[in-house]
Write a structure and sequence with these properties.
single chain, alpha/beta, DNA polymerase, domain 1, 6-stranded parallel beta sheet, two-stranded antiparallel sheet, about 45% helix, disordered N terminus, disordered C terminus
């Protein structure tokens, strides 16, 4: 059961995931994870497993999918983040059409937010690196320390923070993401979710999700957002 979000105003609100939705990591995340594992003498999973680690909290992925011992997790995460800061951000890039779409939505009065399980400081820096931060009314990430309780709340808590900060209502809001975690975070807050096909969802994942639409490029995404937010008469991409 979703709680009701207190409302003083209710703008149309689009909440975006970050990696795999707005930003193409271009191998910087999977490559960084492989680098960190190798640096600590640990085996590197295959490419498909590495790709599936993009989206969920890194601690969880390292432990569950890469079998990293608990006593080594913090060191591996530290190595990964240092390499990501020094190399990964510069290697990544916005997906085609995303900067233009964000500019159009904001100019038309839609409130824009980011809800990501990437640590807050890295999310802020990544968006600034690519000049996307100027489009967003708020940016919501996980605590830098993923062992803290707020990080354990997962995507649902981060999406709820975006809703509350922007005085959003479920019927006037939408989540956009590339993985099941985004759909789950949206559903926990009573929001529809649009899935983007250019991200990191493994084959068949979207078929198991209750999505408002699944889109293949930024133009389709813009039309789907307009429909879900009741800004257009009929759906163009589902």
């Amino acid at each position: 059961m979703c709680e009701t979000v207190p409302v003083t105003d209710s703008p149309a609100l689009a909440i975006f995931d970050l990696d795999g939705t707005l930003i193409d990591p271009a191998g910087s995340i999977t490559g960084g994870i492989a680098f960190a594992l190798q640096a600590h003498g640990l085996p590197v999973p295959d490419g498909e497993t590495l790709s599936s680690m993009v989206g969920p909290p890194l601690l969880e992925s390292l432990h569950r999918l890469a079998d990293v011992p608990e006593e080594t997790l913090s060191a591996v995460v530290h190595t990964y983040r240092q390499r990501y800061i020094s190399h990964g951000m510069a290697e990544s890039r916005p997906y085609p059409g995303i900067p233009e779409l964000l500019g159009r939505l904001r100019a038309e009065g839609v409130h824009l937010a980011v809800a990501t399980q990437k640590p807050q400081n890295l999310a802020d820096r990544l968006l600034r690196t690519h000049g996307l931060d100027v489009h967003f009314h708020s940016i919501h990430g996980a605590p830098d320390d993923e062992t803290l309780p707020p990080a354990q709340d997962g995507k649902a808590g981060i999406v709820r923070a975006a809703l509350m900060t922007n005085h959003g209502r479920a019927e006037r809001s939408v989540m956009i993401g590339d993985r099941r975690h985004d759909a789950a975070g949206a559903a926990a807050n009573g929001l529809p979710c649009i899935g983007v096909r250019w991200g990191f969802a493994p084959a068949g994942e979207f078929a198991s999700l209750d999505l408002a639409a699944a889109v293949g490029d930024a133009d389709e995404l813009g039309r789907a957002i307009d429909v879900v937010l009741h800004r257009a008469p009929e759906a163009a991409a589902c």
